[in-house]
Amino acid sequence: VNGDLQHGTANLLGWEQWLEAHASRLLLFARQQARTEADAQDLVQEAVIETWQRRKLPEPPAVALVFARIRRRAIDLARSTDRRATREAYTLQETAVYWFDSTAEDRERTRLIEQAMRALPEIYREAVTLKIWGGLTFAEIAEALQIPANTAASRYRYGIDELRKLTREAFA
Amino acid sequence: MNDLERFEQELRILTPAKPPAEFIERLRELEPPTSARRTSARREAGVRWNWTHLLRWLVPATVLLAVAGLVWLKFGQPGSQRGRPLAVSVSPPLKADSVQIDEQLVGAFDAVGRLPGGEPVRFHCRQWMDNVVLRDKTRGVVIEQRTPRVEVVPVRFETY
Q: What's the predicted TM-score (pTM) here?
């Protein structure tokens, strides 16, 4: 029993740390994939549970697998919901949620980048997000997006180029 | 460091927005599945798990078995016949030490008819009984077969 308790406490600590390290980046990705904040939060929660259960290990799941699961569930969700109705109902809510934290000094710059990110085509945006803020390798991005690694790399480079063009003024 | 790398660095400085506190609380409540918790959860779901899994496999398995049975019934028979020579080949074949063929004339008669051209023709008919006796002395087997046979020979009137 002591062993189990100790093991459980270790997991609990691991889980807290895991949440601290990954929750915000997972939610960022989910927000980009979902149409509403509620959907994004549900995506993260369900993806974590599913990935965890599939691994059948007490340790928190690998973050790359959770990203992949979020994307698959987002695709399923988009197929199952009435897109037009959802879009109309939640447009206001979407604009209210910011993707990045900012301080008073860099608020303008952060908002500009966020706008540029929103303007990027989805296929480039997800590659950039997974690489820069998800911290995944191209192989992991390829796995998550179910594309070849070369395609993942080229999508990332194209996305970064586009983002740089769109935000040139902010960094000038 | 080139422009691109510098730009990537700038982007990395940005931090994804902190999730709302209630969302973090929700995730925190997911509770890591320790071995003890996992076991009890499994036990609770045990009956349901068994049934769903059983049904998931039982239905396709039953269909497969039914199809396999039908296929066997339809095409399995020639296969089993094919198997028969294998069974026969296990026992040593018969060795006929002596074979007797006896042709016995049972009866003879003539019949008269006409060809399509009107020409009369006579048929000489003979009834035979062929008797074949096969003996295998080593195995003590005697096989006897009697076969009736009719012989019909047309004979022209002139030659008769």
A: 0.55
